[in-house]
Amino acid sequence: MVIDQKRKTIGSMLSVELTCNDEHVTHWDSHPTIKRKPVGNLLLEASILFTGNSFARVKSPSLMSKLTVNNNMFYDTQQRFLFPILNEKWENEQQMVQQQIAVKDDVNLNGEGCCDSHGHNAKYHTYYTDG
Ligand SMILES: [Zn+2]
């Protein structure tokens, strides 16, 4: 028989601790964790960043406030998990391109720049080349 029940949320994860009348304690979490980080929170925060959004832009009462993911959690996840993943992917991509062009006699580089997107001011400029 359960005599005590404690609930807490960590972002979108529900964590429950139950105590029986023999003082056995059991835990249940709605998400698995990686390095103590609820995976559902990680996926949610990754989906924001990897779709080109920001926390402030996506934050809406209907989504984020119910999931209780906050600014600090989001930016902490960016620093600890998401940016290192992006950097690793970028470095791998660079190596792959360098290996591809190293075996070619000639390389033709074409470029394009974009300093605006629909409905937004020109805050960032993106320039890319394609060979
Ligand atoms: Zn028990």
What would you say this structure looks like, in words?
The chain has one domain (about 1-100). It is about 40% helix and about 25% strand. It is α+β, with helices and mostly antiparallel strands. The strands form 3 sheets. It has a 3-stranded antiparallel sheet with strand order 1-2-3, with no helix packed on it. It has a two-stranded antiparallel ribbon with strand order 4-5. A two-stranded antiparallel ribbon has the order 6-7. The longest helix is centred in the middle third of the chain and has 32 residues, at about 70-100. Zinc ion binds near residues 20, 22 and 24.
Beta-strand residue percentage = 25-35%
The shape, in one word, is elongated
Total domains, how many?
1
How do the strands line up in the largest sheet?
Answer: 1-2-3
Poorly predicted runs: none
Give me the secondary-structure category.
Answer: alpha+beta
Cα(first) to Cα(last) distance is: 68 Å
Bound molecules: zinc ion
Please give the largest β-sheet: 3 strands, antiparallel
- Following the backbone from N to C, one meets helices and strands in this order, namely EEEEEHHHHEE
- Radius of gyration, Cα only, in angstroms? 22 Å
Number of extended strands: 7
Helix content: 25-40%
Count of runs of 4 or more consecutive helical residues = 4
Mean pLDDT: 84
